[in-house]
Structures are given as C-alpha cells and as structure tokens.
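Q&A log
Question type: sequence-to-structure
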Amino acid sequence: MAATEKERASPLQALMTAALALPIAAIPARAVAAEANEMGFTVLGYKEQGLMKVTEPVLWARGTIHEVWEVEASAALDIISGASPQLVTNVSGRPVNAVSAASITDRRNTADAKVTRRFGDFAVSVSRTVSDENDYNSRAFGLGAEWSLDQRNTTLAAGYGKSDDRVGSRDDPTLHERRDTREYLVGITQVLSPLDIVQSTVTRAEGRGWYNDPYKLTFTFFDSGIPLLLPDTRPDHRDTLAWLTRYRRHFPAAHGSLQVDYRYYRDDWGIRAHTLEAAWEQSLGERWSVRPALRYYTQSAADFYSPVSPSSTPPAILSSDQRLGAWGGLSPSLRVAYRFERGIRFEGTLGYVHNARELRFGGSGSEAFETLRAVYGIVGVSYPF
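Response status: OK
Response body:
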C-alpha cells in the first residue's frame, strides 16, 4: 500500500461509527439499527487535492439463525492511486514535503466475519479478519462478550483482539518484518431515559515490531553544505489508549436526534489527540432523513518527530512524516437517506476534509505540515430479507 496509507485503517472503516465492535475486527456499521436479516453494498470515493485517490466497494450481510445466532460478514477492495509525499527537505531554506514523481497504484483485499451466540441477556462473539496487499498482510481475530442488566437498560461489554501483520516494501524486496498488536476493550451502554442514551468504551492496544515507514526519507542540508539523508526510523513498540464516549438524545417534537461523540487518544510516542463530532439526524416524513455533521480533530506531535535532522550526527529515532506532527482538522459532512416501501434503504454521504497546522487547538502546529484538502462520497444500498 502507498506510504501515506500505511498507518490508517481503510477509509470506510475510519468513517464508520460502530462503538462496541472489536477495534481490530470491525464489521461494516450501520447508521441506523440493522434489520434481523440484511445485506448491502457500499462504495466510498476519497480524493485528496493533488495526492491520493481511493475507491472502496464493500459488500456486507447480517443475519440471525434460530433467534440466538447472529452472523455478520463483509468483503472490501481498496483501489489506491496517486502521488505520495516521499521526503522532507530543507534545500529551499525551510522544510517542505516533496511528492514522489511516480504515480502509486495499489490494491488491498480484505474480508471479515463475526459470529455471535446469545444466551438470554448474555452474548459471546468471535471474529476473524484477513487483509492482503502488495507490501502488507494482516491476520486478526477477536473475542467479545456483552451482558445486559436492569431489563436491558445497562449493557456491559468486553473484548480482546490480536493481529499478526507482515510488512514489506515495493522498493526493497528483502524487507520482511513483523508487527503484532493486542487490543483490549471494556465498555458500557446506559439508557438514561426513553429519549436519551450514553455509551462509553476504553480501548488499550499494545503493539510490537516494525513501525518504520520504508517509503519516507528526511533530507537535511546544513550550513556546512554537507547534506544528510536519513530513512524513517521509529520505536519498535507502540502502546495506545483511546476513550470514546457517545451521547444520543431524541426530540420527538422536532422529529430529530442529537448525536455527540468525543474521543481522547494517547500513546507512548507522545501523541495526544482529541476528536469531537456533533450531528443532527432529522426525519423528513416517513421515508426521508438527513444528517448534517461536523467533526473537529487535533493532535500534538510525536516525541521523535522532526522535519529535519537536528544535527549532522543522526539520532537513533527520527521521522519527518507529517502525520506524526502537530495539526488539526475540520470535516463537515451531509448524509441523506431514503427508505422504500419494501424496506430497501438508500444512503448518500458527501464530506470534506481540511487538515492544517493552524487548526491545531491551543496554538500553531508543526511548521512543515502541508495543508491537506480532500473530498469523499459514500453511496450505499441495503435490503432486508
């Protein structure tokens, strides 16, 4: 996969809003409650200004067997093309990102499945995910449990996930490195009243292995005139903690619902991040609904991030990847849905992404961060059976 995409989930997974799904083995989530038996097809298009373009079709299905078994499955294909920032250089006097001259093309095939068995108010689930691309392969599984209390007004959840990844490089056929991650999740969903509900989950991840980006370089020119070219070098571990809280309240008189999400993230690389999203789901009659939303994101820089080498003696750990810098982002979106008489549901979402160093909360971000602008669209149809 392209270097700029290596440390993210697929674009569709990044936009999905499943709260209690295991982080590693995510099943495509629905914006509304799914039918007992349902299948659907979704296509995502994502385009960065002057850089990457991603198209991702997803086929998914969900069904119940004898009212105690639930089966979910999906298959997706990422088609990626475009240019990617390859190195940061200060040859012009200030550090700037240099885009690779060659166009990058890659594909990622992924499939996952999840089986849940219910025992009254208690449920256990097992999931499996497989993902393959030219220079990255991943195998993951997850275990989960849910327990409903107080006439199902309170639901407790716990989960464990493990992924075994293999990292390669198009530019270096000898690169074959491992990255293993274990994730732990605990969560609670609480019905506050017939009109509002709150959900909160905490996820802990422990990663070990290869985190260097084989496609990133730092090219530093010193006053002495001697340049220094360094590969991307990161710690061989990454422990993260994420706390996600969601609140939903329905307003019957307005035929709408308020949706507010907040996520706090931290890791042992020094990054601290906050995500706040607010949305309003408005019903327009029995068939139409619209959902305008606005998301804000801000993060601090990793401890080892630097757009240039601080001295002619290279440090052991250094990355100029701007994703590890300090920056912020705004992303408005609008979703429109229509339900036909036979239960078929159509959804379309249009969104815009604007990431910039001046959008970082509490001060300006990293000097070398290049503003990123992107648009995305999601079209999907689901059919109950």
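Response note: The chain has one helix and 20 strands.
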